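pasting for ref
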Amino acid sequence: MKALELKYGCNPNQKPARVSMKEGELPFQVLNGRPGYINLMDAMNSWQLVRELKEATGLPAAASFKHVSPAGAAVSVPLSEVEKQIYFVEGVPLTPMSTAYIRARGSDRMSSYGDFAALSDECDEATAQYLAREVSDGIIAPSYSDAALEILKKKKRGNYLVLQMDPDYRPAEMEHREIFGVTFEQLRNNFPINRELFLKNIPTENKNMTEEAVRDLIVSMITLKYTQSNSVCYVSGGQAVGIGAGQQSRVHCTRLAGDKADKWWLRQNEKVLNLPFVPGIRRPDRDNAIDVYTSDDYDDVLRDGAWQQVFTERPEPFTREERKAWISKMHGLALGSDAFFPFGDNIERAHRSGVEYVAEAGGSIRDDNVIETCNRYGICMSFTGMRLFHH
């Protein structure tokens, strides 16, 4: 098929809408549902991300996309018992593929609500079972087991979008797009992101770049390659735990992503793990409640009495001092940036969220200030010489 009519464009009033190929066939098949414009933008971007992660690490990879940027991305690393609890995996078999997606969605469960899922490998029954329980709009994968496809076709009253991608498809070297009647053309960003990239130029006093740190920086930088710029990404254990995207100021990206990483870590505190939720509470309601409980807004919720809708009893407040003390225990995180850090303030903020490894392009007139700030905290930083803007 060379062309496909879509439900509508970015918005329902933008009709007609379609996707097409100048040469050859479309590289995907629609196995279920009817795609929209944004669905396919998410699908094409997320597929590139997971394909590159798999090629770079050799591990099954997954992404959770929203509005053409990843809410989360991860490779398959075994889950700890606490992670199993905070990602709500009860009753789901943990295969390599399901583990990768569970991690990707668990990066930021608030933002992953209504996501588009992408898998580097075949969607197995375990991954489909997990997806069946979550609010999601669609999925793209190179193949599906019979059992997985049967499960997914029942989701959203039979309207769940299931796309099968041709894993052998490679696009033309030149890419084109049209904006306001003007055609833009550029060479595809095929810069390789691999292990050697992070070892060739380490300007900091600490040059101990561990293999786990290299893996996490690969996850970070490939994630950023398909994230709307400016962007930064915090990674822990092969999983993006904080993505800051589309901000005009880089330090605002660093703060936004750092706040998300802090929330991910706060979910693992005993106070959060033992919250007295009402029986049968929906997962999105539980996620929203945890988000409020781990923020300053919870004081207002306590006063308003809204806690009674989600908790069987009034939880003990999680004070700002307690949260700060728990966050101070974070360590070993990796941070990637899609361009250079212009000031050391980005490193200062990253340090507060346990970052010990950094990768950025380098080339700022204030590189010395950034290096000095890293040295102050014993952070190992790599200059990649590579900018990854994505628009």
